[in-house]
Amino acid sequence: MGGEKEMGEEDEGSLGCFGSDGSKPVGPPTYGITVFDPVSGIWGRLDPVPKYPYGLPLFCQITSTEGKLVVMGGWDPSSYEAVRDVFIYEFTTQRWRQGKQMPGTRSFFAAGGFEGRVVVAGGHDENKNTLSTAWEYDISGDEWAELSRMSVRGW
Q: CA separation (Å) from 145 to 66, 102, 117, 119, 138?
């Protein structure tokens, strides 16, 4: 992790979401992932997701399972187009790898991880239509399997 900080420590000159001179931000918002190490008591920012060096996909979902962090779906922060991207962060190696793309574009969806698998359900497609589909992603096998449809669209 780069840029490690003691708990409660701020970047010098940082004013939250404003620039160091107090100016309002310009351009699309950028996001990153900061994690807490409970053993050391240190917060650290993860390296950027490879395809998105200036932030995360907007409205992506982040979940974890078996010591891995999974970032998936959302909108490209430059084009605002829905994406199918899947990225897995391995805490043991402190590296990102790209996973198999989601079967379809999806944003504003529910996601949860358990025993090396991630379930995604509902949300919206690239045309903002609500979805009743659900899929399960096997992180180690890098494969998607369709689950039964939800009885109600969305989530």
A: 19, 10, 10, 10, 8
47-155 CATH pick, 2.60.40.10, 3.30.70.1350, 2.120.10.80, 2.40.30.170: 2.120.10.80
Two tokens, residue 62: 């982040």
Q: What is the DSSP letter of 27?
A: S
Cβ burial, residue 107 (10 Å; 0-12/13-18/19+): buried
- Over residues 34-82, the pLDDT tens digits come to 999 899 999 999 999 989 988 899 999 999 999 999 999 999 988 999 9
